[in-house]
Amino acid sequence: MHAVVVGGGIGGLGAAIGLHRAGWTVTVLEQAPEFGDVGAGISLWPNALRCLDELGVDLGEHLAVQTQGGLRDRRGRWLARWDAAAFERHHGRPLTGIHRADLIAGLRDALPADRLRTGVKVTEVTEDGLVRFTGGELQADLVVAAEGIRSPIRHALFPACPEPVYCGSTAFRGIARPARIPGLSTSFDRGTEIGILPLTGGDVYWWVSYVTEPDARPADLKAYLKEHFGGWHDPIPELIDVTPPEALLHHDLYHLGTPLGTYVRGRVALLGDAAHAMPPFLGQGGCQALEDAVVLAHAVATEDTVQKALQTYDTERRPRSQRVAHASVRAGKAGPQLTNPVAIALRTTLARLLPAGLAARSGASISGWRPPRLPRPAPPRTP
């Protein structure tokens, strides 16, 4: 059986690994000239770590386990402290951070090199599994559409699906190497959050999101950030200052505002952002893509037809991923996107009064998810 995975991001590579473990021949088609995602980090919650375990991907020393942190205001006053030990007790695993490039590399290296093709633009995908691309075509028993929020395959096969909508915030991201490594933190102000996530190698991933109209593009990103956020608490000014200007990223935040009625069409399965793109306010976008990957591989390995496997995948993944996407929208509106002074004061008071044990349990209903078991590789034969 042959699967073609369109898109070499977190979800696409994860799906390819799972299908490969299930005994399928897999071809990954990536439009970029090489696999990689530089300039940013990502948080991996316990549900994602379990998926990586199931896929057999060991990220080892690239994972930065978070041991301290909390919520602060723009002046640096602590609103709530984060108990890492309690978090691990309630969630089953620690919260970790990783360079996106290291995550992609770890996933890529878990696949045979000859199954990966870069610089390939897919021009057409049909419901019966025909994939046309620059330089040729492939007939697949299964096509995985994992090409992101602007998925051309979703647009072609689900023409009635509305386009992604602006969630109300724009975001800046960067990776810095400050003189002193801070702990994990999220700081709030009116319509704004600034997050700090320590990575390995002395690096720190930071991001700013704030409520504004879409499509505003400052001519000088660093000057703009220093002007608007240089007065926040340490180490935020330093993080902005030591990030190379060419490494700064700026994106408006979009999501699929209208949930899809199905993630499958014929022999094609939508996966990750192509199926359920969500705002980043719960840190679950990549985590949900890995969940998709493991569930799809398990369905293919256990059902006797591709059609049944895709039906199982849709039945299991669509309700959960759409609940998480909806929760992410709500989290943004109740947190970093608040602009009403009364609501902001209430949020601040609640954060200060929230018991540390209760705060540590936050999100456990999402991160406590456990993946199905995938086939184990056969042990090597003894001579």
The assigned structural class equals: alpha/beta
- Count of DSSP E strands? 19
Question: Could you tell me the radius of gyration in angstroms?
Answer: 21 Å
Low-confidence stretches: none
The end-to-end distance, rounded to whole angstroms, is 30 Å
How does CATH name the architecture?
Answer: 3-Layer(bba) Sandwich
Strand order of the largest sheet: 6-5-14-15-16-13-17
User: How many distinct helices?
Assistant: 13
CATH topology-level fold name:
FAD/NAD(P)-binding domain
> What percentage of residues falls in helices of 4 or more residues?
25-40%
Question: What percentage of the residues does DSSP assign to strands (E)?
Answer: 15-25%
Silhouette: globular
Mean pLDDT score, rounded?
95
Q: Which CATH C-level class is it?
A: Alpha Beta
Write structural notes for this entry:
This protein has helices at about 10-20, 45-55, 85-90, 100-110, 150-155, 220-230, 235-240, 275, 285-300, 305-335, 340-355, 355-360, 365, and strands at about 1-5, 25-30, 40-45, 65, 70-75, 80, 95-100, 115-120, 120-125, 130-135, 135-140, 140-145, 165-175, 185-190, 190-200, 205-210, 250-255, 265, 270. It is of the alpha/beta class. The protein has one domain: FAD/NAD(P)-binding domain, CATH 3.50.50. A hairpin with a 4-residue loop joins β5 (about 70-75) and β6 (about 80). α1 packs parallel to α4, α1 (about 10-20) packs parallel to α9 (about 285-300) and α2 (about 45-55) runs parallel beside α9 (about 285-300). The protein starts with a strand and ends in a 16-residue tail after the last helix.
